[in-house]
Amino acid sequence: MTRGEKRTHRLLAVALVVLAVTGFLLYLPVLRGPLADSRPFLRAGHIIVGLAFAALLAANIPFFRQAAAGRDPVQSLLLAVAVAWLVTGGWLALGQYGWLAIPGDLSAAHLFLAVLGSAAALFHAVRARCAPRPVAEAADAVNGRRAFFIQAFGWFAALSLGAAWQWLLPAGGKPPGDPAAFKDCNSLTPPPTPAPQSSPPVGGGYQGKFRVYTVAPIPCADSAWRFTVGGLVDKPRVYNWEEFVGLPRRVQVSDFHCVEGWSVRRITYEGIPLAWLLDTAAVQPAARYVKLLSGDGVYTDTLALDQARLNDVMVALLIDGRPIPSDLGGPARLVVPQMYAYKAVKWLVAIELINQPHSGYWEKRGYPADAWVDKRG
Ligand SMILES: Nc1nc2c(c(=O)[nH]1)N[C@H]1C(S)=C(S)[C@@H](COP(=O)(O)O)O[C@H]1N2
Ligand SMILES: [Mo]
Questions:
Q1: Which band of pLDDT confidence, cut at 50, 70 and 90, is reported for residue 170?
Q2: First to last CA, the chain
Q3: If you take atom 1 of ligand 1, which residue's CA is the nearest one?
Q4: For residues 129 and 301, which has the higher predicted lDDT (pLDDT)?
Q5: Strand 262-273 to strand 314-319: parallel, antiparallel, or no bridges (unpaired)?
Q6: Strand partners of residue 288
Q7: Cα of 214 to ligand 1 centre, how many Å?
Q8: Which of these, 326, 178, 330, 308, lies nearest to 244 by C-alpha position?
Q9: What residues contact 123, with CB distance under 8 A and at least 6 apart?
Q10: C-alpha 346 – ligand 2 centre gap (Å)
Q11: Nearest to 328 by CA among 108, 103, 175, 107
Q12: Pocket of ligand 1 contains residue 182 by CB under 6 Å
């Protein structure tokens, strides 16, 4: 290695550490609240360092070529992982700002590659410390075999670490009816009775994993729970729980997409159509937007009136035939299947008709104002 190569090598290592740290901060669901205001900068920083990393790699392709010629499989594999990692990262970045559609499992793939890449890089560094001699120089059979075993062990360790991220994720692969899967602190009676289509769920049960997101402590609903329809309406309403569970509900099967790159599919939701609540409240002609308020006291979002009236927009009370647990936004959460899930306000307790646009919690912090999943729509 020349001095210049050493320097870029060190820079790559520093960039990798910065990417791992900022990436982890961006990923961890529990940090969404505490780091909410820093999130746009954290994300921009992560992307800029990612671009710098890509540029450094590109500038060093001749060096990697040479290393590959020395038949060091670690370098070539590291390079392959890094390229896949950068591609998924760039895709996420473009999707995040609303310029590209995001496949449902992009975030999981990026995270997997990140953990795999970091583990491999760590192994690469440790190996360089402990066995500084290049593999190609280990000419005699004993050294060759030993080098092979060290390599094999290192790769095994790196791969198992890469696979271990699955267990680091919060629970949620199981159906929400499994009390172990999601916490539920709600104590409302009577529970909503599932419609026949809802139980067993016509969708066959949802596919995928919810990440439990919140930016404030999760509120628990008891008999003091109320649902308010107010603002520019002729007939404002305040429903208590008993009245609310008695309202007409519909059942639908829909997919759920977070703009951060993860999806849950074929969820059977049962809920009150938002259009029904609007009609019952007699919306005034001056109203143009529906402001959505969460019982956490912090989270809000908004829909234009015509979006709010789409026939698949509902205030859901049941998921796959069971009351929505508090972790997933119960007792009542908004569902807007055609938009990214930041519109799906959890612990929805009030809707307010307004005539001025309102910027939601995450839209104020960098999420695109256009939340349509299908941009052709
Ligand atoms: N009240 C509230 N609603 C919210 C959020 C939140 O933090 N607080 N996060 C939003 C985002 S960005 C997503 S992806 C989904 C996550 O839903 P889940 O926690 O049920 O997986 O909820 C949305 N609704
Ligand atoms: Mo999200």
A1: very low
A2: 54
A3: 346
A4: 301
A5: antiparallel
A6: none
A7: 6
A8: 330
A9: 74, 154, 155, 157, 158
A10: 11
A11: 175
A12: no
Residue 142: count other Cβ atoms within 10 Å of its Cβ.
8
Residue 230 amino acid letter: G
- Cross-sheet strand order for the sheet of 226-231: 237-240, 226-231, 348-354, 289-294, 300-304
Residue 294's φ and ψ, nearest 5 degrees, are -90, 150
**Which of 32, 326, 346 most suits a substitution to test ligand 1, by most atoms within 8 Å of the C-beta?**
346
**Looking at per-residue confidence, does 372 or 168 come out higher?**
372
Minimal CA–CA distance to 245: which of 314, 199, 192, 195? Answer: 192
What would the pLDDT profile of 190-242 be if each residue is shown by its tens digit? 999 999 999 999 999 999 889 999 999 999 999 999 999 999 999 999 999 99
CA 93, 99, 104, 109 dihedral sign is negative
User: 139 vs 54, 280, 305, CA distance in Å?
Assistant: 34, 83, 74
Calpha distance 369→226 (Å, rounded)? 29
Identify the residue with better confidence: 57 or 311: 311
Say how far apart CA 24 and CA 224 lie, in whole Å.
Answer: 38
Q: How far is the CA of 331 from the centre of ligand 1 (A)?
A: 14
Structure tokens at 219: 């509120």
Q: What percentage of the chain carries pLDDT values higher than 90?
A: 65
Please indicate whether residue 258, judged by its CB atom, sits closer than 6 Å to ligand 1: yes
User: Rounded CA gap, 192 and 206, in Å?
Assistant: 19
Alpha carbon distance 110, 113 (integer Å): 5
Give, in order, the Cα–Cα distances in Å from 262 to each of 30, 81, 340, 342, 363.
17, 21, 10, 12, 18
Residue 28 banded pLDDT, cuts 50, 70, 90: very high
Measured from the CA of 211, which atom of ligand 1 is nearest? 21
Angle between helices 3-27 and 39-59 (to 10 degrees): 150
Structure token digits, residue 15: 């960039």
| CB-CB contact of 342 with 371 (8 Å) | yes
